[in-house]
Write a structure and sequence with these properties.
Layout lengths: L1 E2 L2 E2 L5 H4 L1 H17 L4 H8 L3 H9 L6 H10 L4 H14 L3
Length: about 100
């Protein structure tokens, strides 16, 4: 029996946000590439494996706000600017 908070038929938050995570990842790639920074360089600044950042950029890994702030700073961007770019991307996708 499905319930409001889980159980059979439950859809994970990650699955519910799949399109949004992909849109966010595309923004992160665009900003990183625009700054001419390699994925491996950002990962090194963050102290994470490049595969971690790859999953974020492909939309297969969720981020918390602290991680998003750290990514923005590692790319030399203001977190607020990055969040605004993500919001615009979500708005343009009809979200």
């Amino acid at each position: 029996m499905a319930t409001r908070f889980g159980g059979q038929g439950r859809v994970s938050t990650k699955a519910k946000l799949a399109d949004e995570l992909i849109a966010m990842g595309k923004v992160l790639v665009r900003v990183r590439e625009g700054a001419r920074i390699k994925q491996s360089d950002v990962a090194a600044k963050l102290g994470v494996p490049p595969s971690w950042l790859s999953k974020v950029e492909s939309g297969t890994r969720r981020l918390d706000v602290i991680e998003l702030i750290r990514i923005a700073e590692a790319m030399g961007h203001e977190p607020g600017h990055l969040i605004e770019q993500i919001r615009l991307a979500l708005d343009s996708d009809g979200r």
